[in-house]
UniProtKB/TrEMBL annotation:
One of its GO terms (biological process) is methylation. The gene is fliB. NCBIfam families: Lys_methyl_FliB. One of its GO terms (molecular function) is methyltransferase activity. It is an enzyme of class 2 (transferase). Its EC number is 2.1.1.-. It comes from the Bacteria. The lineage of its organism: Bacteria, Bacillati, Bacillota, Clostridia, Lachnospirales. This is Flagellin lysine-N-methylase.
Length: 380
């Protein structure tokens, strides 16, 4: 089976003890069967506390998955004080579970090829995008396949620097809804929708839409709180979420005023300065998450909505964090941390996304106006 990956994929190196937000804490670390079997015969290294008989004794069952039982501070028991893995130091990389070996790489298997990407929930991945173009591959036959052609066209649209990342997503979502309304769309319809003439008209119309800043801010606050509530209840990402959610709740309770509106407008100018990085992040999301092996047009629309929710959560949390820190310019570290934490919180499987959208919205398939409200840059 042929395998494809973006050019940046080969540049990844784990920064280990230098990592600003290690993956060895605050989430589920699954252990596959073969690893569990091997761990039954291995004693924990001295540095691991508390000491147990075998490595397998640190595995627990959580939500029907075998995972490493985290300590009370939500850190992996094998993570040392120097932020290194005690297992790797004692036994080498071969001792690791599949998840620990692969992260942040992911493979998507299709009927005729496989695709590999890196997940943005690792800070080292964002660091690569800060310096490099991702270089997404062309997949043979994508022009003849409705869904792959759609993905290609959306990637091309996002790459256009004259169009803001938000405008590109708004145009793409409009086209997806348009195609969904047709009887049996074919690849030629996709090419029509993305022709220069149609895109120009669509973008002209999109640029005329102006939505009240306050409505977007309040909606994005709700989105952020919904996405974060379970994590906050479990005491996860407290260093990031606690103060951000406090300000978010105050805004929802009516504390949106002229001062905050002014701050929001300043923030948007700062946000714009990171358009290049945000564009690469969104392109990676589209490349890796928009199309799955069993996708149809409806699932693409739901995926786009999920990307919009993720994006809204990132932008809102970056805004709140930036406000709280009183930063003049939006620091790279503030933006990176927002992307890393929010993508860790939104890394849902297909069926979980559908369930979330069904539970959170009257109809899981949004109208374009709601998509625009979520992504709006307001007073721009
Ligand atoms: S998050 Fe990325 S850079 Fe950090 S420890 Fe994990 S793999 Fe390494």
């Amino acid at each position: 089976m042929q395998r494809f990956w973006p050019r940046y994929y080969e540049k990844f190196v784990c920064t280990a003890d230098q990592c600003p937000r290690t993956c060895c804490q605050e989430w589920k670390i699954p252990v596959d069967e073969a690893t569990e079997e091997r761990w039954r015969k291995l004693a924990p290294p001295q540095a691991v506390k508390p000491q147990r008989k075998a490595l397998s004794a640190y595995i627990i069952e959580k939500e029907e998955t075998r995972v490493i039982g985290l300590k009370k501070d939500h850190r992996c028991p094998f993570l040392t004080e120097k932020k290194l893995c005690a297992l790797v130091s004692a036994y080498g990389d071969e001792v690791l579970s599949e998840t620990c070996t692969d992260f942040p790489r992911e493979v998507h298997v299709f009927s005729d090829h496989e695709e590999e990407t890196l997940m943005p929930c690792c800070p080292a991945v964002i660091d690569i995008w800060k310096k490099e173009e991702p270089g997404f591959p062309n997949i043979p036959g994508e022009e003849e396949n409705l869904l792959f052609l759609l993905r290609k066209e959306i990637l091309d649209l996002l790459a256009e620097e004259k169009i803001s990342p938000e405008e590109a997503l708004l145009a793409a979502f409009y086209i997806l809804l348009d195609l969904k309304g047709r009887k049996k769309p074919i690849p030629a319809d996709v090419s029509d929708c993305f022709s220069e003439k149609t895109k120009k008209e669509l973008l002209k119309a999109i640029r005329k839409v102006s939505l009240p800043t306050e409505d977007t801010a309040l909606e994005c606050n709700e989105i952020l709180q919904d996405l974060a509530v379970n994590y906050q209840n479990e005491g996860l990402y407290g260093d990031f979420l606690d103060s951000v959610l406090e300000l978010s709740a105050a805004i929802s309770d009516g504390e949106w005023d002229e001062v905050l509106e002014e701050k929001w407008n300043v923030f948007l100018q700062e946000w714009k300065k990171w358009d290049g990085l945000i564009r690469k992040f969104l392109m990676n999301e589209i490349f890796s998450d928009l199309v799955a092996a069993d996708s149809d047009l409806e699932s693409l629309i739901l995926r786009m909505e999920w990307i919009a929710l993720e994006y809204a959560g990132i932008r809102q949390s970056a805004f709140l964090n930036w406000s709280l820190k009183g930063e003049g310019t939006l620091a790279y570290e503030t933006l990176r941390d927002a992307i890393v934490v929010l993508t860790r919180m939104t890394g849902y499987e297909e069926e979980d996304i559908r369930e979330y959208l069904e539970n959170s919205f009257e109809c899981p398939l949004w109208e374009w106006g709601y998509f625009a409200l979520v992504l709006s840059r307001g007073a721009e």
